[in-house]
Amino acid sequence: QVQLVESGGGLVQAGGSLRLSCAASGTTLSFNTMGWYRQAPGTQRDLVAIITSGGSINYADSVKGRFTISRDIAKNTVTLQMNSLKPEDTAVYYCNCRLRLTNYWGQGTQVTVSS
Questions:
Q1: Which of 4, 25, 66, 91 is most exposed, with minimal Cβ within 10 Å?
Q2: For the chain, what is the radius of gyration of the CA atoms?
């Protein structure tokens, strides 16, 4: 059973940094894509960053230049380094991984950025 577990969320002041990690278990296969989404209260879940098995990366415009996504294919982990955090980055961040035609989601980790 594939399971994704996020870690690294917390409370940080504006301008600070956090690093989120997602560890996948339950499969020896490499995910086609691994990425991060976020959802603030009353909003839809939006893409933050995604990286493919081939190394292609896409970022939401709102985080370009501030966030960096990376993955370790062998370990099936994906990391989101978040710098220059803003209050509007406050949300629950979810790890998302796709294996062939199936999407898997983590439980989410709270990121709160204070003014």
A1: 25
A2: 13
